[in-house]
Design goal:
Blueprint lengths: L5 E5 L3 H13 L3 E5 L8 E4 L5 E3 L4 E2 L11 E4 L10 H7 L5 E5 L5 H5 L7 E8 L2 E5 L2 E4 L6 E5 L2 H9 L7 E5 L2 H21 L9 H20 L8 H11 L7 H7 L6 H15 L4 H13 L10
Parallel strand pairs: 1-2, 1-6, 2-5, 3-10, 6-7, 7-8, 11-12
Antiparallel strand pairs: 3-4, 8-11, 9-10
The structure holds NADPH dihydro-nicotinamide-adenine-dinucleotide phosphate and ketopantoate.
InterPro entries: 6-PGluconate_DH-like_C_sf, 6PGD_dom2, ApbA, KPA_reductase, KPR-Related, KPR_N, NAD(P)-bd_dom_sf
Pathway: Cofactor biosynthesis; (R)-pantothenate biosynthesis; (R)-pantoate from 3-methyl-2-oxobutanoate: step 2/2
Family: Belongs to the ketopantoate reductase family.
Length: 307
């Protein structure tokens, strides 16, 4: 267990609220929420126990309010919002800071490090299903375990100690982070189908969608192997199976953005499969169709950010 630490949670949305809850539950830290608008009195609902917890820490709405650097930044903006959070990162980080990138994708460090003033960037794989269910409310679906996976090593150990005693999340240290990150990315790629169809997990009950998801999973796993992940093609069935067995009412963060008409995190979760597939000469026929659909749904014009 660590002593008291100064923690800034940048991006108090679905995952940021759960991270802030864990920091609050640890009971010994100075926690600040860093938002771009006033999120109101945030609360986190556990949909299994029904427990509702209010977040009680102070909220900033501009980097101008930052009074100095902190030891820990828990960064939970969407991947495409990272550049927009540069003002906070610049104000909060020094080389003595650790930024935990609580984001989907496999490019956390490359994305965050340029903004972090030489702080250490600890990539985190987020196995949490959290949905904004009201203007200041986030509901955690606990049938997807609330797990954060970080690379094994001293920074990961410190992070696990930071949140020791917080029931909201479990921190797991993984020795083969590349494999773990690509396993999670494959589930995110599959969830792109929810955003394309505007439907929750029930969509995977369709046999034709299941076949599409399997094709997507297999090509993602092929790219993953080329990137050094130890993931066999046979894992595709198991990963699609997660969605088939999911409560049909569960969604995905990219679906919630699609339903709300917001920009989509398409590049970090689906574009990356096509992008790195091309680099390795691996065909990605499902992504070749899905990626332009998601980019277009996100409002991207041809030549305006789509590869
Ligand atoms: N939700 C989930 O179940 C899961 C999400 N993830 C990943 O976690 C990451 C976060 O996703 P999620 O929590 O769902 O996203 P949300 O959209 O719920 O939260 C993002 C938050 O960041 C805020 N934000 C955006 N830009 C800034 C900025 N410049 N400064 C401060 N705050 C800012 C947004 O504010 P505003 O409200 O103003 O837009 C919002 O509160 C993503 O990479 C996602 O893929 C991973 C696993 C599961
Ligand atoms: C639902 C899940 C676990 C898979 O896409 C997720 O990571 C998300 O909502 O972004």
């Amino acid at each position: 267990m660590t002593a008291m630490a100064d923690i800034a949670v940048v991006g108090p949305g679905a995952i940021g609220s759960v991270a802030a809850l864990a920091a609050q539950q640890a009971g010994r830290h100075n926690v600040t929420l860093c938002a771009r608008r006033d999120p109101g009195a945030l609360r986190v609902v556990d949909d299994v126990s029904g427990e509702v917890t209010e977040l009680t820490m102070p909220v900033l709405t501009s980097p101008d309010g930052v009074t100095g650097p902190v030891e820990w930044v828990l960064l939970a903006v969407k991947a495409h919002q990272t550049d927009g959070a540069a003002g906070y990162l610049n104000a909060l980080c020094t080389p003595a800071t650790t930024v935990v990138a609580l984001q989907n994708g496999v490019e956390h460090v490359a994305r965050v490090a340029p903004h972090a003033n030489d702080a250490r960037v600890l990539p985190a794989i987020v196995w949490i299903s959290a949905e904004p269910t009201g203007p200041s409310e986030v509901t955690v679906r606990n049938n997807i375990s609330s797990l954060l996976q970080v690379p094994a090593g001293p920074e990961g150990e410190e992070f696990a100690r930071l949140l020791e005693g917080a029931p909201a999340v479990e921190v797991e240290l993984v020795s083969d982070f590349t494999t773990a990150a690509w396993r999670k990315l494959t589930t995110n790629a599959i969830a792109g189908i929810m955003a394309a169809t505007g439907r929750r997990a029930a969509v995977y009950q369709r046999e034709d969608v299941r076949e599409l998801a399997l094709g997507l999973a297999r090509e993602t796993l092929a790219v993953a192997r080329a990137e050094g992940a130890a993931l066999a093609e046979e894992e595709a069935e198991a990963l699609v199976g997660i969605f088939e067995r999911m409560d049909p009412e569960i969604g995905s963060s990219i679906l919630f953005d699609r339903l709300a008409g917001r920009e989509l995190e398409w590049d970090a979760r689906n574009g990356v499969v096509r992008r790195l597939g091309r680099r390795h000469g691996i065909g990605t026929p499902v992504s070749d169709v899905l990626v332009p659909v998601l980019a277009a749904a996100s409002g991207v014009e041809v030549g305006g950010g789509e590869e």
